[in-house]
Amino acid sequence: MTTPGSKHLILGTAGHVDHGKTALIRALTGIECDTHREEKERGITIHLGFAHLTLTNGTRLGVIDVPGHRDFIHTMVGGASGIDFVLLVIAADSGPMPQTREHLQIMEILGITKGMVVITKTDLVEPDLLDLCELEIREFVAATFLRDAPVVKVSAKTGAGIPELRTAIETMAGAVSSRPADGVFRLYIDRSFSVSGFGTVVTGTVIGGTIRPEDTVYLLADKPTELRVRRIERHGAEVAEVQAGDRASLNLVGLDKSAFQRGMLLADRPLKATTLLDAALTIHAPKTELGIWSQAILHAGTDEKQVRVHLLNTNRLVTGEAALAQIHLATPSYLQHGDRFVLRNSSCDITIGGGEVIDAAPLHHRRRPQRLVAELELIARNKLHELVSLEIRKAQKPLTVAELAENLNLSRDAVTKVVDSGTLRGVGHFDSKEGTVLVSQVMLDTLRQGILSAARDYRIAHPLTTRGIDINELRGALHLEKRAAHDEVMRALLGQLVEKQKLRELDKTYLMFEDSGVVDPKSLKHLAIIEEYLRQCGMQTPLLSQIKLIAERERIGDKELRMILHHLVSTGKALKVEEDYLHHSVVDACRARLIEKLQTQPTGMKVSDFRDLIGGNRKICLLLLARFDEEGTTVRNGDYRFLAPAAK
Ligand SMILES: Nc1nc2c(ncn2[C@@H]2O[C@H](COP(=O)(O)OP(=O)(O)OP(=O)(O)O)[C@@H](O)[C@H]2O)c(=O)[nH]1
Ligand SMILES: [Mg+2]
């Protein structure tokens, strides 16, 4: 089991083919990494090799041995992606070679900052040649993160220098800190196999978070599939958990082995997929130039994808320069803010460069406005809080911390930390039952304007109403969901608008401040006349032409009459049955008589019985019964109506 307090670190090899990486790991750990038959036959490493090294304090380092051959750079990138420090292996008899340089570039692109140079095969050269070789190497690494790194000279054949190398590794492991083990658990699969009696086992480097047996994980392929972790091994022994910086073998339940492929991501939540990234990009390959649009292969973890790169803040990018780019992926990926990636050319023979994801869910930038570029530059520099601000500004609605975390593929804790730090610019905070709700100032202004227009429009649409718009009607007008998070924002804005005397509150409804809610007496009188007429008509519903006659006599215009009828229906004073209007008192009376009758007639009633009871025409009877069914007064069974249980 894991030693308490021990570090979780991974050491990787790098260097040109045949320079002695695998032999060095064998000399250090006793573990042979070239285990495949084809590797033994060809005498080169083809697949990633895995070993471990126990330090004197008990810490067990994970070790990843990578292939040096130029044909397997994609495998090397996958292995190098999760490492904490590197042994750059250079053979004394040949010095730095093309893949020494390419591997070093890849380390820089991946953001690796710690490591040492190991000169191997020292048994093959004379001491003065060795000194020359060291000088050459010092110059070679002078412009890289290894400029002040230790240089250790060894021979895997004789064992010379191996104890010194072990000491240097101990010292470096002591100085490197483990990655944070909180946050989202993620692991790029590098191998998967079946173990008889156990099912599927996948291995990979944990690049974030922690996972334990019985936890749920998701295989993020085309869509997330839920799986259960049955058993976890680290360095060949069962453990109670693995965390960022560990090599892990996970025995998973839920899918057949064939579902798992190298490059797929496992995570502890169903992360959002993206086919678009905003990123900071640097060109490393010598004499290389990118135009506004270019094709490339993007490597992230053990995953590789065809992409198109669209430069945002320049039309041309040359060796040594950095730029912002929008990257279009051919198939969905689950990258997140801060992830590093390597770009290789489409024919897979040159490492062009690489960079870091700024926004994994950007809007599609057809053009390249200065404001967007400035925003991305800010995020690239100030990181997380700018990203969170941008996400809030992008949203067309209020967002909770949980929604933000989900949109950004971050843990809630990470988002909460940013929110609590008070560094978010142009963002309003609100408390709700769903936790803190965040809204951009721009969106708040839009909502304020929306509330005022809705309050004004409501009164224009309902001129005979003596009340204002209520919160349910407002929610609809503003296209907000019926949720505590959204209502809380609306209430806060309503409060502000009332305080600023833009709105007036009347019985939990809202009117424009200058609107007293009074309807002119003549209109009210007209309304009362039409309502009274409908009441008197009872079941003998008048034709519209008859209502119009009354209106004419009272000097009520056509438009006003339509408004009055609409008002009576929308306020529930009248029921509109196709072209007929029934006063609600008539509906109530019919309902009362129906209930009374059904209580003494448990065998139910047909439509004709109901018609005899109330004396209306068949059409109105049918529509009234349908309404009573709908409101839950009656239930229908074939031709018969019965009293609904609730109405009894
Ligand atoms: N004399 C001598 N030979 C060595 C030493 N280290 C490695 N070799 C030999 O060099 C050859 C290549 O060694 P590997 O360890 O396979 O080289 P590698 O860097 O892992 O090669 P790739 O993984 O294919 O890139 C083998 O024949 C080793 O026996 C050394 O220190 N001295
Ligand atoms: Mg090797």
Structural notes for this entry:
This protein is an alpha+beta fold. Strands 2-3-1-4-5-6 form a six-stranded mixed β-sheet. The protein has a six-stranded antiparallel β-barrel with strand order 7-8-14-11-10-15. A six-stranded antiparallel β-barrel has the order 16-21-19-18-22-23. It is elongated, with a radius of gyration of 37 Å. Magnesium ion binds next to α1.
Average pLDDT taken over every residue: 88
List the ions, cofactors and other small molecules found in this model. Answer: guanosine-5'-triphosphate, magnesium ion
**How much beta, percentage-wise?**
25-35%
Task: Record the strand order, biggest sheet.
Answer: 2-3-1-4-5-6
Helix segment tally: 19
Count the E strands: 32
Helix fraction by DSSP (H/I, runs of at least 4): 25-40%
Give a brief outline of the structure.
By secondary structure, this protein is of the alpha+beta class.
Which properties best describe this structure?
single chain; about 650 residues; alpha+beta; six-stranded mixed sheet; 32 strands; about 35% helix; about 25% strand; disordered N terminus; binds guanosine-5'-triphosphate; binds magnesium ion
